[in-house]
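Run DNA-binding protein through structure prediction, thanks.
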Amino acid sequence: MAGRVPPLEIASSGSGGHGHVGGDSLVATATARKTACAWECFAAGEDIVQGVRPEILASWYRCRDQYEVDPALHIAPGAPEGNDHRLDHDVIFTQLGGLGALAGRDVELDGGVVAVTDGTGRILGSWGDPTARKRADLSNLAPWSAWSEQCTGTNGMGTSFELPGPITVTGPEHWCEGFQQWACAGISIRDVVTGSPVASINISRWKAPLSEHVPTWLRNAAASVEEEIHRRAIMEAKSVVAGFEHESAQMSGPLMAVDRGAHVIAANCAAISLLKLADDNPIATGAAEPAKRWKPDIPELPDVVRWAMGRALQRPQWSGYARLSVCPGEDALPVSMRPVVASNNVVGMFCAFGLEEGEPYEKYSDVASASLPPRVIGVRDERLVLLAPSEIRYAQADRNIVWLSTDRGRIQAATRGLDNVEELLAPHGFRRVHRRFLTNLRRVVELERGIKGELVLITDLRCRERVPVSRRHAPEIRRLLGV
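Sure, done. The structure for DNA-binding protein is below.
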């Protein structure tokens, strides 16, 4: 591991060691003064769209309006007791801790502190310059403190959970005034199966900037640890396939096995036929590689799998079922679920179609009862655009970028990935209608039927804005619209 990650260099060009730490270089530059002025206005309740990097401003909005973090905070709160991470994450934390310890030794002469957290932002260990660590202790930048955005505002560790890749936060870019004498950079390490954060590693420096090489080092460090996560995901999948072969030999009905992220690893011939898949689909023989697993176009499946995983973690012998719209134009089918357990970990779910066994799944949200969030954040011309959900007619995915069709024109969503945008807007009247489209059902004014019976939603009569509805989603959309 250490051989694949080069030594960490955090001192900016022209600076070196303790003699250059302790000045006012983080707040004295023109850029820093401009950011500090913007922060003062924003913390006082004003809305701003200029003078601050978009990713930092988006974080400020979360901290102020969603998490309500006190901008005057100067000490991070302690982390709550207990944990809910998977047992095999302990191996990841150990590997990341070893990397952090080596990096801490690299930065001792430059006044640096290296910290490692779990997936909730709780610091597990810190290393580096003893003087800087004592300074960090004053802000509770130390083990068993909480550095998620929800607890401590914009910072390298917490904000890395919200964005892909490394994130730097320098001086007055921190949401909490008490941390604005620090420069920091962090990156999250994510589960390759679910995409959720497992841990993070962060580099901090007191009253001095970080080198431009730090983000590259963070990428390499994260990649070296995620190799182990990927290897474990392959091992999990092999356990699921082995269990599936035993299970499928005992039943003739449609059966598939999914991973923790609701992607299909294996399916028998009856399930492949039911789902109308090609016989040469990789799941026919078992897809151990995460990139080759199939994501079903079954709208509620991810929520149901998350629910089932939570139940199974408490009782490995648990079983439950849900009714899912599996085939377009047909009634929902019952799908029974039982956990796949390997080495005391729940690594997947068996899904048997047509069976109702165990605890029933209940829906928790409804379009009619949804309340609107105060803002949705978009980006246009390096500015953040604040949108009420009622202004958004639909969202369209272009790979990982999401475009919002709004009353103010076409605007890029600050949140990447249609699944993430859907999670944000689904409680507020938006529904997935196609693998690339999410629509505000309250803005639908007309419906059209295509030549082959396909459904098209019209959300703006002025320009005849047309949003396609896939056959799989059409029955649910008709039900929600009352047609």
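The longest helix spans residues 214-248.
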